[in-house]
Amino acid sequence: MRKIQKINILHNFQKTSERVVDELREKLLAKEFDVSATYDNDADLNICVGGDGVILIGMREVGFPEIPFIGINTGHLGFFQELCPEDIDCLIDHLQNDDFQLERLYLVESAVCTEDKCIPLTGINEIVIKGIDSKVIHLNINIGDETLESYSGDGIIISTPMGSTAYNMSAGGSLVYPTLGVLQMTALAPINSRVYRSLTNSVIVPFNMTIELVPEYRDENSILIVVDGVQLAYRDITNLKFWVSEHKLTRLTTQEHHFWSNIKTKFL
């Protein structure tokens, strides 16, 4: 990677974030970094100021760029956000001295197929399949070429390793190190009966396998799709497929083993 010189700053428009952005821009310019006035696709680093939403929304809006990102947290939990506003001077020192690591983060891709088309989707944290208006949904689940189960319940979370600490964790899924090329499938309130047999544990699926969800005919118009918190609905869904994307995000970190320290400080 070339030396970091040109920097984009992405942020929400809350007063706290805007104050931090002003301070960050002033200090970067004083150290002779080039801070773009508008988003520059040729920049060397994206600094995201705010909560996790700045990364989830911002990275999507700029097309999941190859440009590395790092976050400064002015929100609540801020799991993606490695730094606090007090760390700005330390961050600039790391950038000047090329003292940082880069992590490649896996995304989840999906094809939502209806009777007449397939819609591509990409998630950073997760893609969730739920019933509209909290309806119970019924899905046949295939992994690779094998039928796994006939599921009945509130829905299914398909999460990335990075997203394992988000909705997936709240639903009882496992924590997965963010650089592993896997997806995790976690059931939401599964129902077990003589007709439907659903796993109550999450399932880890490797990068070379596809997860397929096939709704029963009565549920083809009852499905709500939630991509990183954004709700989508399509009619006449025939199947939904999920796989590890070939595209990745790159996160810049100034700490070794940042994931474990983040787990400890945010959750324990």
Question: Could you walk me through the main structural features you see in this protein, from its secondary elements to its overall organization?
Answer:
The strands form 3 sheets. A 6-stranded antiparallel sheet has the order 6-5-16-13-8-9, with no helix packed on it. A 6-stranded antiparallel sheet has the order 12-11-10-7-14-15, with no helix packed on it. Strands 2-1-3-4 form a 4-stranded parallel sheet, with helices on both faces. A hairpin with a 2-residue loop joins strand 14 and strand 15. The chain has helices at 15-30, 52-61, 88-96, 167-170, 258-267, and strands at 6-11, 34-35, 45-50, 69-73, 101-114, 118-123, 126-131, 137-143, 146-153, 155-159, 182-188, 203-206, 211-215, 223-227, 230-233, 237-253. The protein is of the alpha+beta class. The model has no long low-confidence stretch (mean pLDDT 91). The protein contains 5 helices and 16 strands. Helix content is 18%, strand content 40%. The chain has 2 domains: 6-99, Rossmann fold; 107-246, Tumour Suppressor Smad4.
Keywords, please?
268 residues; alpha+beta; Rossmann fold; 2 domains; 6-stranded antiparallel beta sheet; 16 strands
